[in-house]
Amino acid sequence: MVPRRRDEPHRAATPLELFFDLCFVVAVAQAGGQLAHSVTEDHLANGLVGFAFAFFAIWWAWMNFTWFASAYDVDDVPYRITTLVQITGVLILAAGVPRMFGDQDLTLSVVGYVVMRLAMVTQWLRAARSEHGGARVMALRYAAGITVCQVGWALVLLVPEDARPYVIPVGILLELSVPVFAEWHTQSTWHPHHIAERYGLFTLIVLGETVSAATVAIQSALDEHEALGELLPIAGGGILLCFAAWWIYFARPIHDHLRTNRQAFLWGYGHYLVLGSAAAIGAGLEVAVEYAVGQAHISADAATAAVTVPAAVYLLTVWLLHARHTKQGAAQAVLPVAAAAVLACTFAGEAGVLLAGLVAAATVAVGLVLHAREGRVPARG
User: Of these four, 86, 135, 348, 379, which has the most CB atoms within 10 Å of its CB?
Assistant: First the structure.
């Protein structure tokens, strides 16, 4: 398993990586669907905690594989089989998500997560066997750190339910610290263009799942209630939000910002909020649809907030991770102001989703105008 060069030209995602992403979205859909159900039943706290934990497991396993593949993708038979085992693990995790939300039963989800992560250990051990010096130490640290964390997750199943809220955050912090510990002295040879593309592709797939979830919810509501007048504003606002979310994320390339581990780790870790909020927008649109047809046991403002809050989080985190590194002057303020405006739409009640969509569309338009003005400014010096 020879490491790939960091400056390798034309480094692009492979068909196996794309298949990997698509299978992971099955778990994202399960987590989003359960979040929507919890919110409509007015179980917000349980829904948010369950979604945050489930999405962390999905995102972290995806992220670890993605960075490993950027450095060591050899695409041979052992590598492919191990990757397929990881996919099997996420499918097990996805099957366990409803039990996690409904009965607080973590068993199936933890089993699926451990399958994914132990498969990752075998990848790192294989890399260590082919490496030497600092790179070998790094690979062995990854293998050891991940293994220790999986032992910890297995032990969590033995902890009483009322103690788990205090134990699980410790496990999450340990997981997040493994890459920092492993690459303290030697960096893996991840490829900036490849990493930026992989995150962009997964963002695309999550946004696609958001559109799909909202479409199915609207279709079901129309079939059962024929409430076209109530659903059209939600459909219009939702599609504008999703289109704007795509446009804003891909407005400027980001790979030139990813030069060091410090920059890349902050950027990569921050995508937990980008991807999680993108998935939560879809869940929120489901909630808004359920409220419009009288099936949600919450207020109009709460139903609207299920869409506007994750949309505002998405806009703000994309600004933090992308836009502020590539824009200047007045353009820097566009996304923070837009996030505040979308959040304010919460108090518009049933019209809030449509208004949020219009704000998002206006944000894209303002960004385009400012970008056009940048192009007309003569270069100085």
Answer: 86
pLDDT class of 378 with cuts at 50, 70, 90: very low
Tracing tokens 């797939």 back to the chain, one arrives at: 205
State the CB neighbour count (10 A cutoff) for residue 219. Answer: 12
Q: Which two tokens stand for residue 85?
A: 């085992």
Cα distances (Å, whole numbers) of residue 48 to 53, 130, 283, 294, 346: 9, 43, 11, 22, 18
Interior CA angle at 70 toward 66 and 71, to 5°?
Answer: 125
Return the ∠ at Cα 164 (arms to 159 and 166), rounded to 5°: 125
Tokens describing residue 94 = 């996805």
Distance CA(134)–CA(138), nearest Å, equals 6
Q: Does the global pTM surpass 0.85?
A: yes
| Cβ–Cβ < 8 Å for 190, 6 | yes
For the chain, where are the alpha helices, taking DSSP H only? 15-40, 44-72, 77-102, 107-130, 133-156, 164-182, 192-225, 228-249, 261-292, 300-318, 324-326, 334-344, 352-376
**Angstrom distance (rounded) from CA 180 to CA 192:** 18
Residue type (1 letter), 81: I
